[in-house]
Amino acid sequence: MMQQYMDTKAQAPDALLFFRLGDFYELFFDDAVTAARELEITLTGRGSGSDEKIPMCGVPHHSAENYVLRLVEKGYKVAICDQVEDASAAKGIVRREIVRVVTPGTVIESKALQEKTNLYLASVVPKDGMFGLAFCDLSTGELSVVEHADEQAMLDEMIRFQPAEVVVPAGEENSEYAITMHDLLRTVLTTGGEKTHRHDRASATLLEHFGVISVDSFGLAQYPLAVSAAGMLLSYLSATQKRSLGHLKMPAYITSDEYMTLDSFSRRNLELIETLRDKGKHGALLGLLDETVTAMGGRLLRRFVERPLANKQRIEERLDAVGELHEHLLLREDLRQLLDLVYDLERLVARVAYGSANARDLQAIGSSLSILPHVKERLAATASGLMQGIAERMEDFGPVVDLIERAVVDEPPVSLKDGGVIRDGFDEYLDTLKQASREGKRWIANLEATEREKTGIKSLKVGFNKVFGYYIEVSRTNVQYVPDTYERKQTLTNGERYVTPELKEKESLILEAEEKLIDLEYQTFVKVREEVATWLAKIQQAAESIALVDVLQSLATVSAKRRYVRPVIATDDRILITEGRHPVVEAMLKGEPFVANDTVLDNASHQISLITGPNMAGKSTYMRQVALIVLLAQIGCFVPADHAEIGIVDRVFTRIGASDDLAGGQSTFMVEMVELANILHHATPKSLIILDEIGRGTSTFDGISIAQAVVEFLHQNPKVGAKTLFATHYHELTKFTELFAGVRHYSTHVQEQGEGIVFLRKILPQAADRSYGIQVAKLAGLPQEVLVRAREILAELEQGKPEWAEQSGYRPKAELGGAMILREEAECEAAPAIEETPSKKKAGKEAANSMQLSLFADQAADHPIVAELRTLDVMKLTPLDAINLIYQLQQRARESEA
Fold first, then answer.
1. Is the domain 428-486+493-529 a CATH 3.10.520.10 member?
2. Is the dihedral of CA 777, 779, 785, 789 positive or negative?
3. What three-state secondary structure class fits 348?
4. Separation between Cα atoms, residue 103 and residue 107, nearest integer Å
5. Helices 295-306 and 536-562: crossing angle, nearest 10°?
């Protein structure tokens, strides 16, 4: 047996092997040590012919699923090895085989799946800097593929799908892209079979599985890497699942030009799926929009939010459907009530194809399909082309519903091995066996009364157990009255158990009938399940239709509840919003009205909006709401505004807030610059950019310089020219924006009350004069002595004579747009003033370039310290070397002054 175990283990070396022995699944050696630790079960040992025992642990077979799923959740693979022949008929050791390998990306058990979230297995195949990707949800049969030309785009796609497991070609698990992907996604990384990613082999795998003669059937002839990724993924599924994968849909290519592109930064910053704070759904856009009543609709809505449309016709089709449901409350409520009766058809039919569906699953399919004619009737009566098209595509599933209703009892048991699944009248031979079983049990039920009367023993009982079968039990005090025809079978402490020839005959008939009955019921059920599987593709199509109807009614329900209006999808690039509101913030306010604001953006006179004002005054909320209103419009939903005209946006970029990436070795400022670089490299004139506080993570001069350069780049680079909302505390930028025709000033309105301020949340078309930092600090609860001292320092700075500057030999020499620059008098010159130029467009660059500060005055150019600094290679200095060098230079400077 141990040799059989070792041979089997060699087939799945990277998995924990659950080896079936009787009523238990056993694990041995290192697998046992790992499982005992992770499952917190007892680790024992088994003799092996030597003094040292083999580590061993086990779990009962009837509850093994729970243990397997616990291990998979922790990132392990589990290989299930079962007996594949009848032990009574086996010669020698019972034959055992691995029947399935359960991995984090191949779980189909309902208890391990979230209803409204897909569980994806992904694969990636790189070549010459490009990447082919495939994504599969085994529980629904969804299979999508795509190619990307660079690593960042590949990672963004991975982040969108959030796969539980990623398959890479054999030998590439330690490659740079694989390590980056693993660290970013925190997912399980595994390798495919040898050479299964090669294009010729991957193509053959796909063609054989789907029964087609060319990859042209999938529309993938021009996407060889996508074919390679899909073929490798399918090979991996075949190797691990070892059963039918007939429910997998043909691979669908993800076309980027049909959808708005959202990178990982934007999805995170806009909190589309989950919140930044607690990673929860409540407080995210998806949580607000989710009024779906089916699991399928919930999953589809998530895909809508993650991939808004960029095709005007398709957006209008969705808006027409949402608009009709928005206007007709009774229609909407009828659909909601009907859809609420529909089970998760996608996952149910997947279990049918998988061969794991039980009687209750079939019953759920039948009851769900019986609802479709009523849904179809209501959709057919609408004016929406999208909903009428759904109605036309809905099949008549009467034969399937009838089959399930005739075959399956009203309340079937969970297990198919216990019998009682098939309804009377469905199979004649089954009915004969059932009748024989019932008559035998009826005879035995009457036997107790008959024998009591015949023997006069009032305490006589007829019973049954699995070891001894049927018996007659008599208490010890009545044994003397037992007839000679009784045959003693078992002696108890307080009595005796007997059988009679007639009882043994009836028992044999009953048990034989029940054994045949259970086997025949199971075989009959399997045939019914296989018949339902022939409808699989049509049921999957119906499931997709039901999911779409559910999403449309969800968007209409939210729009009606929240007083949203239908947006106008403009043919140009303008974004005009009247009295726009932040959908999530508005929904979370308790009794407090949301302050609405207008927005004007285009690619000409209102390309960039510079927004100033204090923290907490509403700048970030305002900018996010503009982005979310655009997203909602392109999803096909009504929007929170009095009026909105939305020109289709190809990408939304956001740079809002930042935090250290300590594990990646990046500071807050570096994270900010990485996100900004991504925006500037990929933005187009049809993009929308949200920038919040660029350059705050470095020195004031560097920050202002970067912020101004970004504004110039966005305004003057014709390849970018994106519509931009730019919030900043650098008031200096407001003077430069007067030089650019497409830049406008805005500020958040605040009202001073003594030493405090009130945030009015209104965006005004003017620049703010200051940041009100001390007032905000007071609201945050800083100690009073800190606030008093801060006001004193502020007053000194505004007067140009800060106390600390005079004490250190420094004093102000130049002013740049209201910001004080303090430089040592002996070494610094005043920066040249900025001259106003009549022509704004031509003078922008000249004015920007005039603001340069020399580090040292000319007379100090030959100083030995300066000469040493010129030759210094700062890139080779460690932090400690730098500190020591600064100290030495300071000492030399003091000595030269003395």
1. no
2. positive
3. helix
4. 7
5. 70
Assign domain 2-102 to a CATH class: alpha beta
In 521-553, which positions are buried (b, 16+ CB within 10 angstroms) versus exposed (e)?
Answer: bbebbeebbeebbebbebbbebbbbbbbbbbbb
Can you read off the two tokens belonging to residue 567?
A: 């947006």
Q: Is 618 annotated as a binding residue?
A: yes
Q: Edge-to-edge strands of the sheet including 252-253?
A: 188-191, 165-168, 121-127, 130-137, 142-148, 252-253
- Equal CATH topology for 316-397+535-562 and 428-486+493-529: yes
Residue at token pair 């101004």: 708
Handedness of CA 35, 37, 38, 42 (dihedral sign): positive
In whole angstroms, what is the distance from residue 705 CA to residue 819 CA? 13
Distance CA 101, CA 83 (A): 15
Helix (H) or strand (E) holding 148, with range, is strand 142-148
Domain 316-397+535-562 of CATH type 1.20.1260.10: no
Q: What residues in the chain have per-residue pLDDT under 70?
A: 47-51, 88, 614-617, 657-668, 695-700, 732, 734-737, 749-761, 766-781, 787, 791, 793-862, 874-880, 883, 897-898
For Cα atoms 593, 637, 653, give the angle at the middle one, nearest 5 degrees: 85
The answer to whether 820 is a known ligand-binding residue is: no
Write down the pLDDT at residue 850: 40
Residue 615 assigned as binding residue: yes
Task: List, in order, residues 6 or more apart from 739 with CB less than 8 Å away.
Answer: 837, 840, 841, 843, 844, 847
Is 617 labelled as part of a ligand binding site? yes
CB count, 10 Å around CB of 744?
A: 18
- For the chain, what percentages of helix, strand and coil (3-state, to nearest 5) are there? 45, 20, 35
718 is in an annotated binding site: no
Cα–Cα distances (Å) from 534 to 246, 531, 720, in that order, read 10, 5, 53
Q: In 514-585, at which residue ranges do the beta strands (DSSP E only) sit?
A: 568-570, 575-580
| Interatomic CA distance for residues 285 and 450, integer angstroms | 73
Dihedral, CA of residue 398, residue 401, residue 406 and residue 407, to nearest 10 = 140
Q: Quote the mean pLDDT of the chain.
A: 84
Tell me the per-residue pLDDT of 568-582, one tens digit each, with 9 for 90 and over: 999 999 999 999 999
Express each pLDDT in 529-549 by its tens digit: 999 999 999 999 999 999 999
Residues 6+ apart with CB under 8 A from 349: 141, 247, 365, 532, 533, 536, 539, 540, 543
Note whether 524 and 362 are within 8 A (CB): no
For the chain, domain boundaries:
2-102, 112-254, 316-397+535-562, 428-486+493-529, 568-782, 793-857, 862-898
Residue 619, annotated ligand binder?
yes
CATH number of the structural domain 112-254: 3.30.420.110
Whole-angstrom Cα distance, residue 586 to residue 592?
Answer: 9
Kindly state the DSSP code that residue 91 receives in the 8-state scheme: S
pLDDT of residue 616: 65
Residue from 404, 279, 306 nearest 652 by CA: 306
Query: What is 568-782's CATH number, 3.40.50.10540, 1.10.10.60, 3.40.50.620, 3.40.50.300?
Result: 3.40.50.300
Q: Going by DSSP bridges, is the β-strand pair 495-499/487-491 parallel, antiparallel, or unpaired? A: antiparallel
Annotated binding-site residue? 614:
yes
Rounding to the nearest 10 degrees, give the CA dihedral for residues 681, 685, 687, 689. Answer: 70
Identify any residues that bridge with 97 across adjacent strands, giving them in sequence order. Answer: 82
Q: Is 620 annotated as a binding residue?
A: yes
Q: How far is CA 791 from the centre of its chain?
A: 48
Handedness of CA 265, 268, 271, 277 (dihedral sign): negative
Q: How is the beta sheet containing 723-727 ordered, strand by strand?
A: 652-655, 688-692, 723-727, 608-612, 743-753, 756-764
Do 199 and 93 form a contact (C-beta atoms < 8 A)? no
Amino acid letter, 8: T
